[in-house]
Amino acid sequence: MTVTETELAEHFEATVARGDRIEPRDWMPEAYRKTLIRQIAQHAHSEIIGMQPEGNWISRAPSLRRKAILLAKVQDEAGHGLYLYSACETLGTARRELTEKLLSGKQKYSSIFNYPTPSYADVGTIGWLVDGAAICNQVPLCRTSFGPYGRAMIRICKEESFHQRQGYELLMTMMRGTEEQRAMVQESVDRFWWPALMMFGPPDDASPHTGQSMAWGIKRNTNDELRQKFVDMTVPQARALGVTLPDPELRWNSERRAHDFGEPDWDEFWAVVEGNGPCNAERLDRRRRAHEDGAWVRDAAVAFAEEGAR
Ligand code: FAQ
Predict the structure, then answer these.
(1) What pLDDT sits at residue 179?
(2) Tens of pLDDT, residues 218-270
(3) Ligand 1 pocket, mutate which of 46, 56, 102, 125 (most atoms under 8 A from CB)
(4) How far apart are CA 214 and CA 210, in angstroms?
(5) What Å distances lie between residue 261 and 111, 196, 242, CA to CA?
(6) How many whole angstroms from 224 Cα to the centroid of ligand 1?
(7) What is the pTM of this model?
(8) Which of 95, 119, 300, 302 is 20 to 30 A distant from 144 in Cα terms?
(9) Å from CA of 198 to ligand 1 middle
């Protein structure tokens, strides 16, 4: 008995509607596959490019302990990139192709990693706000409809929440330090707050992919829902830390039982996404150089595999 495309599509829709997982061997609509490749690749590239802003401080960390923590965190990010590239490969695309698309600018990575890290406090702020935003966005992705992506996210989220705590602990230590250290933390939070809110993507009414991705169970929440959750989660943490979030419109709304907050600068967001942020060129250049420097490792691995196959 041959199964028709309509029956396969019905089976796919029913699986998604039941909240069950789609696995690589299952039939899936081409557009579902393409959307997943776009999102997972962008996510993987973000982890890899995301090593750079903090990596900037490894050689200048103020103590051996802080250096060991930072090294381990940046290595974790490389690991997250690898889980995600592997998940993406189950959709029939090779990691080599994904890397080429990153280097040629055809695929994106998160806007947040195009901002500079001129202060050591930025290491703590990235852990607190950037990993904090990443967790808000990624915990629901543990229940995404595509099996390999959801399973990768479970491991990643465990490590991200550890990263968030180490960032917060670093900032808390600095806040208990000198006046100058407290000022460093506030200055860093002032620079990272709005870009962190932008990580969740454009507002729902300007997000072309959210509707379909929610219908397919790829995304479990909209961009605005997650942004709100992040603000509500972060305000009490900022209070405990003793920093001010740089938004005069930020206040508790007792009717909504949520915080009202100001609008990020969406022109800035699109400029960064389109490649015109403060560090886009530098980040991609560095990644290209690292890729070229690693060519001998890839060649050796291929030669070794061929040798073994003989
Ligand atoms: N940056 O229709 P939507 C991390 C693009 S966490 C750049 O709303 P979608 C951990 C979007 O691709 C960061 N581009 O799109 C870490 C689309 O462009 P296209 C990574 C953005 O996919 C911490 C267009 O705008 N996390 O790395 C951004 O439904 C510390 C329209 O947008 C993830 O990737 C942006 N912020 O929703 C590492 C999470 N936002 O393709 C190191 C998984 C939107 O049409 C240190 N991804 N765009 O040309 C997602 O949840 C989703 O893809 C969203 C965007 C929510 C990011």
Answers:
(1) 98
(2) 999 999 999 999 999 999 999 999 999 999 999 999 999 999 999 999 999 99
(3) 46
(4) 6
(5) 20, 13, 19
(6) 13
(7) 0.96
(8) 95
(9) 9
Distance 180 CA to ligand 1 centre (A): 35
Buried b (16+ CB within 10 A) or exposed e, 119-158: ebbbbbbbbbbbbbbbbbbbbbbbebbbbbbbebbeebbe
Side chain identity at residue 158, one-letter code: K
Q: Determine if ligand 1 sits within 6 Å of the CB of residue 43.
A: yes
For residue 51, give the ligand 1 atom closest to its CA. Answer: 42
Question: What CA–CA distances, in Å, run from 61 to 48, 58, 71, 175?
Answer: 21, 5, 10, 17
Which tokens sit at 35? 């959307």
- Residue among 207, 218, 220, 221 to mutate when testing ligand 1 (max atoms within 8 A of CB): 207
**In the beta sheet, which residues pair with residue 228?**
none
Residue 46 CA to residue 108 CA, distance in Å, equals: 8
CA angle centred on 276, ends 272 and 279, rounded to 5°: 85
Q: What is the pLDDT of residue 1?
A: 61
Q: What is d(CA 310, CA 294) in angstroms, rounded to the nearest whole number?
A: 25
Q: Is 202 in the pocket of ligand 1 (CB under 6 A)?
A: yes
Amino acid code (one letter) for 103: L
CA distance 148 to 24: 8
* Ligand 1 geometric centre to CA of 140 (Å): 14
Q: By the 8 A CB rule, do 81 and 19 touch?
A: no
- The minimum-distance atom of ligand 1 relative to the CA of 134 is 6
